[in-house]
Design brief:
Layout lengths: L1 H44 L5 H57 L5 H8 L2 H13 L5 H21 L9 H27 L2 H16 L5 H6 L5 H28 L2 H5 L5 H13 L5 H18 L2
Helix pairs in contact: 1-3, 1-9, 1-11, 2-6, 2-7, 2-9, 3-11, 4-6, 5-12, 6-9, 7-9
């Protein structure tokens, strides 16, 4: 009787754990969908301001939002965490927000939105390597195979899918853009131990408050003077980048890291280019070719292999 009851209870716990993981995987897919549109928004913003000013416009509202959410009710926890982990939280804000967006925005001044998203999709490869080296995550051939398959799909998309192969003239800005996924992989691996010790929302919120403080360094009088003349579409893009793409998405990312291996969470970035290219087609008229569809199918197969139990 006891053994049977224990088995039933264990079965219920396993089913709840699987259901909980499925919920977080669904949220990560929604994050990928949101980030897929962020490249179009960034492309529009850097037509009006510099990449440094983009960081200010995006992360000052984000910092204020998290401050309003956390400080009135959890101010003591915030202060305790800053005293204990201040430099790590500042490092998260610097790498995952400030430097990531500087490199991405700088790259997108010359790289198309869809191409930038394809470069960013290299993030899981960087994250997987860093997680194995610094977090002690177990090396698994299945996950390595999934990364290789997804990388193959990514190559097909880059080389043949968009109809606009990367030229030597684009190499400099493509390389600049490549630093963005390195920064995000660093953010992911660094935040993993923190979200295991502290509430994920708290870690994300304080890191983004640091990012808002850092971004104040980029404010110039000429920049402030031009703000009233910026179009409504610019402000819509800024709000989209600040709230859905940052406050919501970063909170989900930290929550998923608390429950899933860093490499597996990072693998969802492979879905971002598919959404980015699709919305670039709808909104910017970029073509969707048979090679693009084939590359996307290979990419999804790789993501499935990475996340398969």
């Amino acid at each position: 009787m006891d053994s049977s009851g224990s088995g039933v209870g264990c079965g219920h716990r396993v089913r709840r754990a699987v259901a909980g993981t499925a919920v977080w995987q669904g949220l990560l897919i929604l994050v990928a969908l949101t980030w897929g549109n962020s490249f179009i928004a960034i492309k529009h913003v850097v037509e009006h301001v510099t990449p440094l000013e983009l960081v200010t416009m995006r992360f000052v509202p984000v910092a204020l939002t998290f401050a309003a959410l956390l400080l009135p009710t959890r101010g003591r926890q915030v202060w305790h965490m800053v005293r204990a982990e201040g430099w790590r939280l500042a490092f998260l804000g610097l790498t995952g927000a400030v430097l990531y967006n500087i490199f991405l925005g700088w790259g997108e001044t010359h790289v198309a939105a869809g191409s930038a998203s394809l470069i960013i999709a290299l993030n899981p490869a960087f994250t997987y390597v860093l997680a194995v080296v610094f977090l002690g995550e177990r090396f698994a051939w299945q996950r390595a195979l999934g990364l290789a398959v997804a990388f193959g799909g990514l190559f097909v998309i880059i080389r043949w899918g968009s109809g606009r192969p990367v030229t030597l003239d684009d190499a400099r800005y493509a390389l600049i853009t490549l630093f963005a996924p390195v920064c995000w992989a660093t953010y992911t691996v660094t935040s993993k131990p923190l979200v295991e010790r502290y509430p994920p929302l708290l870690v994300t919120g304080v890191a983004m408050m640091f990012a808002g403080l850092f971004s104040l360094a980029f404010i110039r009088p000429a920049f402030l003077a031009q703000l009233p003349a910026l179009p409504l579409s610019f402000w819509g893009a800024i709000l989209f980048l600040a709230w859905p793409c940052t406050v919501f998405a970063f909170s989900v990312w930290s929550g998923a890291l608390e429950r899933m291996p860093a490499g597996r969470v990072a693998s969802f970035v492979y879905l971002v280019p598919m959404f980015a290219v699709t919305f670039s087609h709808w909104l910017l008229g970029d073509p969707i070719t048979p090679a693009l569809v084939a590359g996307a199918a290979v990419l999804v197969t790789g993501v499935w292999l990475i996340n398969r139990p």
